[in-house]
Amino acid sequence: MASPAPATAVRYVEVIRVSGQTQYDKDTPAQQRAALDRLAQGRAGVCVATLQEPRAVSGALRLAERPDLQKLLQLARERAFDELRVQRWDRVQRTPLRAERGLIIDAIAEAGAKVVEADGGEFDPATDDGDLMLGLKGSMANRERNLIRARTTAGKLQAARAGRPYRAAYGRTWDVEKGTWGYDEEKRAVYKSLFDRVLAGESQRSIARDLNARGIPTPGGVKWSAGHTSRLLKDASAYGVMTREGIEIQCPPIVDRETWEKAQVALTEHSTRLGGPPRKSGAILQKLVKCAVCGGPVHVRWTKDSARKGRKSRLYYVCARRPEPACRRFHAVPKVDELVEERIIAMFADPKNQRFIFDEEGREQGEPIDYESEKLSCEKRMGELRAKAERIQRRNDAQLLEDETADKMLAEVAKERREVESRLAQASLSVEQREARARAEKVRFADVRRSARFLRRRKGADPEAWRKTLELLLQGQPLYLRPDGTVTARRP
């Protein structure tokens, strides 16, 4: 009698992802790796691939900016795996785009694969139940992301109004428990020496070389350059004023305001004396844009085309950090600026779209929370809980409920009441913030309309005029440059 054919081993793909660099540094990937290893010990199979980026990656990034998900879709098209193993489904993505969430689920289903979580959860997207559960998990992950962002924003505003800094300014210390400022005397002396030396006529490059020779690190712990000294000399915290969330916070000064202003004059005179006025770049997004992949600053850089005779200069937007796998580093300024101009002109054609001029998804971006409805729902639920507590108390007084049972039921009501109160407070704050933002946007848009009327005639507008219009539109909020050269107002 012939022996039965051996069963085919289950092929699986693992996905490991963390959202922030702090998580990455705290070995969260190692924790996910350990959870998946425990799953592998109790669930036989052959690992086809482990998809993990060498850095922190936001789950809200689009597919075009997620090499790991692009590889996953390729493997799904090849039907190269039977299971997708993750610690939790939200480790795959938290994108606010429902279409992209559905695309991944559909690709896994068409590959005939299942999703297996490290805690034992198993979902087959080809079935109605599996598709429903994965869809719900994706929606809940996106909602959780929105709530976290709302709570974080509210917390930052509250801390700024209370005068608490995000971090201590260079040369100063901040005692979180006592809420008091102090000085780091060693760094304070270094900071003050920058002003003394610049006012004495010394160049910033010379100062940087001396600090490096003495082994003194920058605030970020790297070597000094003229850029580091320039930023510290121009920082308003030097004379005791910090800004957080648009709110001024007082901190201990390094020098007085008069000395700081003299230093600004000295910096300008030195720059003019060395090379004349700074070269105008003609880039609309200069100092207004960041890299959408790594979040780093984007500089404007002149480069020379060595392949052409005469080495013609060209202007590029350049990611200041080292290139990441998904980060295209160079973007031609004329091409990007032309897209920006078209967006602004389209916005003036339909002012209702002003909030979405740099967001293709517009109102379809994510699943926005209706805080008005949330507030009304919480208020209604609070009334129901009060009535429920009163009914329990009446039944207990009439000896229809034992004391132990009544206490347990009242405790459950109190617990739910605290949760609803927290949601109500958050919804109320969000409603107030939205109303204040709407009033501010109305005033701001009127300013933009007045300042940018002539931008309809594109030939008569210079880059500086476009940039000033953008500054009015953005109010300090950065734009993000994607690898494909498009610009968005939201960090993916």
Automatic annotation (TrEMBL):
Residue ranges occupied by any Recombinase domain in the UniProt entry: 165-274
Domain of life: Bacteria
PROSITE patterns the UniProt entry points to: RECOMBINASE_DNA_BIND (PS51737), RECOMBINASES_3 (PS51736)
Gene3D superfamilies attached to this UniProt entry: Putative Large Serine Recombinase, Chain B, Domain 2 (3.90.1750.20), Resolvase, N-terminal catalytic domain (3.40.50.1390)
Sorted UniProt keywords: Coiled coil
GO MF entries: DNA binding; DNA strand exchange activity
Coiled-coil residue spans: 375-430
InterPro entries: DNA_bind_recomb_sf, DNA_bind_recombinase_dom, Resolv_N, Resolvase-like_N_sf, SSR_resolvase, Zn_ribbon_recom_dom
CDD domains linked to this entry: Ser_Recombinase
PANTHER family, per the entry: DNA RECOMBINASE-RELATED, DNA-INVERTASE FROM LAMBDOID PROPHAGE
Name of the protein: Recombinase
Native source organism of the sequence: Anaeromyxobacter diazotrophicus
